[in-house]
Design a protein that fits this description.
- The protein is mainly alpha-helical.
- The protein has one domain: dinb family like domain (Four Helix Bundle (Hemerythrin (Met), subunit A), Up-down Bundle).
- A 3-stranded mixed sheet has the order 1-2-3, covered by helices on one side.
- β1, α3 and β2 form a beta-alpha-beta unit.
- α1 packs parallel to α4.
- The longest helix is centred in the C-terminal third of the chain and has 26 residues.
Length: about 160
């Protein structure tokens, strides 16, 4: 039952994230502030976050120093969407297969053995993946606004997508 509800929620968040990624301009060096990540780093990060979600759902832990990871090249919004869709499909599949009792199992995130996160798989999925995705998606919304790119509706209409209001 929880998996069914989380799948519905994930599909909603994935659709909203996809709509933002579809509009990302190719301005790799753009930063709204000197301390901000460049668009060419943030957008691929968002596109690849579902890989982390799938990892949380299919493994008991992740040590970043023990995995092979190739950052997505920032080439086009189509490439961002393609990577996001591939990762989202893995999350959906994992959600469909995950036994309900697996949500309470411990999950760890570390780097070279140093803990970054330790808690239940549910908390890891929610905080390290879903909330993380929503957070960075909102950042992308600011980047788009500052580049005069119309924003899609997310949790209601945007100033650009009024949905008839």
């Amino acid at each position: 039952m929880i998996n069914d509800l989380l799948l519905i929620e994930f599909n909603e968040e994935a659709n909203k994230t996809r709509a933002i990624l579809e509009r990302v301009p190719i301005k790799a060096d753009f930063k709204p502030h000197p301390k901000s990540a460049a668009l060419g780093k943030l957008a691929p990060h968002v596109a690849q976050l579902p890989e982390l979600g799938a990892t949380v759902l299919t493994t008991p832990e992740l040590d970043f120093s023990n995995r092979s990871f190739t950052p997505l090249t920032f080439e086009s919004s189509q490439r961002l969407v393609k990577a996001f869709d591939a990762g989202a499909a893995k999350v959906r599949s994992a959600l469909e297969k995950l036994p309900e009792n697996a949500w309470n199992q411990p999950w760890k995130l570390s780097f070279q053995g140093k803990p970054i996160f330790s808690g239940s798989r549910f908390l890891a999925y929610r905080q390290m993946f879903v909330n993380h995705l929503v957070h960075h998606r909102a950042q992308l919304g600011v980047y788009l606004r500052l580049n005069d790119v119309p924003l899609p509706a997310t949790y209601g209409p945007s100033a650009d997508d009024t949905m008839g209001f």
